[in-house]
Recover the amino acids of this structure.
């Protein structure tokens, strides 16, 4: 998980518990602005702070190997990147095509 994903998980769990950021902050001994930054994915969070938040919100912390993409997943991603590059190139060239049409008419 990255910081924005952790922040989103914290926000969802906090709202499910019907807690405000201020209430959660008071219960886990943090500043409300820290909770806001965590939920926005805008700050690094220490393991001890994260542990306190997770214990209060009944979330787990898991350290596991990253899932490696299969060959097929890698191929799909490569094709998607290629198609996106073609679309972007087409978008960038479009104004020049219009200019060329005006001169040849």
């Amino acid at each position: 998980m990255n910081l924005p994903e952790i922040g989103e998980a914290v926000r969802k769990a906090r709202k499910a518990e019907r807690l405000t950021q201020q209430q959660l902050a008071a219960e886990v001994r943090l500043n409300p602005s820290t909770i806001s930054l965590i939920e926005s994915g805008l700050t690094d969070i220490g393991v001890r702070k994260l542990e306190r938040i997770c214990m209060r919100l009944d979330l787990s912390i898991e350290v596991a190997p990253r899932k490696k993409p299969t060959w097929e997943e890698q191929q799909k991603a490569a094709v998607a990147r290629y198609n996106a590059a073609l679309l972007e190139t087409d978008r960038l060239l479009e104004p020049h095509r219009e200019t060329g049409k005006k001169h040849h008419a």
Q: What stands out?
A: The domain at 3-57 is CATH 1.10.260.40 (434 Repressor (Amino-terminal Domain)). The first helix runs from residue 3 to 16. The two ends are 56 Å apart (CA to CA).
